[in-house]
Amino acid sequence: MAAQDADVASSPRRKILIADNETGTTTPLRFLMEQSGYEVHVASDGEETLRLCAAHKPDLVLLEAMIANPDGFEICQLIRENQELTATRIVFVSAMTREVDIAKGMALGADGYIKKPFANAEIMDHVRRLLELTDGPDQ
To answer: Could you tell me how far CA 130 lies from the centroid of its own chain?
Structure first.
């Protein structure tokens, strides 16, 4: 058991930030990510999102485009401009589902765009795929 504990201690848990002002989204996403072994932080507005990004340097941000102060698109752009967050993956999980919104998010540097309502399997596929790209397949 001690060897197993040492393995867990030597491999830090991946950090995910969920940025959405809807608890109907954040609560199930938080549960899903925690059950998958991720360290999870939740932000309910743009300022808090940016503060938590600076403090925790998440591996991945699940971001609602309609979050306010600043909005999700501006947050995406600010994360992409921050040299300390270059490895952070960004996936929009948003009710803004028009093609123009999706194109805007991707043009600003998002790694994916998932439309609400979403399926848990779809979210987990995106998260695992993106974190594997960051880690490499052997991690």
So the answer is: 10
pTM check: above 0.85: yes
Structure tokens at 74: 């501006």
Q: Report phi then psi at 125, rounded to 5.
A: -60, -45
Return the number of other C-beta atoms located less than 10 Å from residue 139's C-beta.
9
The string of pLDDT tens digits covering residues 59-97 is: 999 999 999 999 999 999 999 999 999 999 999 999 999
User: Domains of the chain: which residue ranges?
Assistant: 13-135
Please tell me the distance from the alpha carbon of residue 19 to that of residue 46, in angstroms, as a whole number: 8
* Residues paired with 15 in a beta bridge: 39
Q: What class has domain 13-135?
A: alpha beta
Closest C-alpha among 37, 63, 34 to residue 48: 63
Per the structure block, which two tokens stand in for 100? 């123009």
Give the separation between CA 70 and CA 46, rounded to whole angstroms. Answer: 5
Pair of tokens at residue 101:
């919104």
Task: For strands 15-19 and 39-43, give the pairing.
Answer: parallel
